[in-house]
Amino acid sequence: MAEGGRKLVVVEDGTIASMAGNAAFLAEFPFLASLRDAAVPKCGGCKSSSQARARADLFGAAKRTLAGMASDKKRKLKELLNAQQVRITYKTAANRIVALTF
Question: What is the pLDDT of residues 28-70, one digit of tens each?
C-alpha cells in the first residue's frame, strides 16, 4: 500500500456502488457485479419502499461478504481503496450492528 494512502475509508452504500462500477474491483470481487443494476428507489408509490428495502438488503449482504473475506482479500481491498484502514458497518443475521475495522 502507498505511504500516502488515506488513513481510514468507511465503506458505505455509495462506496460499494462505486466499487461495483469499477473493473478493477469487479475483477477482484466478482460478487459486486450483482449490485451494478440494483434499482434506485423512486419517490412515492407503494413499490418504492419495497425497492428501497430490496436495495438495502443487497448492500447489506455485500457488506457482510466484504467483512467475512479472508485477510489476503481484505489487504487487496485496502490496496484498491488506497487506505491504511477500512471500516465496514453492517447488520448481522441477528440484527446486531457490527463495526469492523481492519
Answer: 999 999 888 765 655 656 666 787 888 899 999 999 999 999 9
Q: What angle do CA 23, 18, 79 make, to 5 degrees?
A: 65
DSSP 95: S
- Domain residue spans of the chain: 6-101
> From CA 79, how far away is CA 100, in angstroms rounded?
17
- Residue range 66-85, pLDDT digits in tens: 999 999 999 999 999 999 99
- How far apart CA 45 and CA 75 sit, in angstroms, is 42
Strand, helix or coil at 81? helix
Distance CA 16, CA 90 (A): 13
Query: Which is nearest to 22 in space by CA: 81, 88, 94, 63?
Result: 81
d(CA 77, CA 81): 6
pTM higher than 0.90: no
For 32, the grid coordinates are 459486486
